[in-house]
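seq:
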Amino acid sequence: MFPQPHFLQTWEWGEIKQKYGWEKDFKVWHDGDGNVIAAAMILMRSARFLKGLVNLRILYIPRGPLFVNMEASTRKVVLDDLQEYARTKKAVFIKMDPEIIIYEGMPGEADEGTNQAGIAFQEDLKKRKWFFSSDQIQFRNTVVINLEPPEEDLLAAMKQKTRYNIRLAERRGVSIRQAHPADFSLLYDMYLETSLRDGFIIREREYYLDVWELFTSHAMAQAFIAEAEGEAVAGLFLFFVGKQAWYFYGMSTDRYKEKMPNYLLQWEAMRFAKNRGVISYDLWGAPDAFEPSDRLWGVFRFKQGLGGTVQRTIGAWDYSPRKFLYFLYQQVLPKILGFTRKQRRKAMSGEMS
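struct:
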């Protein structure tokens, strides 16, 4: 139904978030003939301060709303309703980060394309006093591979070094297998090692096991493990909705890196997705600034080598019906996040040791 569905807008994702402190709600918009034109899963969370005198309620639409079409009338009714919804719920703000593309390709390159519908939607947000958010929850940009061509064409579209490393991994005995729920704890251990090595924060083990087990049990996810010398050295999770797949979690150890296991791991995951009928393979994440100083530059170069196209979206935007509280929230949030991240980093280090 939707040209660009997303697994973060599924009932299953709402179930996970509900277990971890959010409420979920759903809105569906129809045209005059009763046809669905847009939909959104809205997450809601509240926090009380000053002994309950101040209640801060926030709303978040992860990778939504979803649109069947981007006509002006559709955009208007959706934004009107979401703004009214935020007022009715007495929310400090509502955040959305729909996967609405504004540009394709690298900035300044000859083949850079513009999506006028995405530009128009962004202009709507500005006119309605939505703010480009300082708190971008998901990656704003990504790299997407079209899996429709034959396998030999997919390989030909990759950079020469990437093809070489895939074959190198095969020659050096790296093997790829589909993972099962019994492997999920091992995958979390590798993910924890990855996060400490690369300097990002992850949640507790239970959270990831819940996500992985739920989506796998509904045939909406598949994990893969790369092994070298009989040892698990890398892994990844793919999520599926319709003909789209997302490489959402990746993990690895420092062992046997010279065997290039991650290259063969991605290639086998792509082949699996293609055989499943997937035509769009999202590598999930690209730099905000396309320059070597960006923290994602290294992993972006790896993704580029796989032959994908850069997609740049509008990012996350906030609308606040309670602007003073929104201002206070913006001042307090960095302090809260800084404290919780510091505590979580300590816990992660203890868990690893």
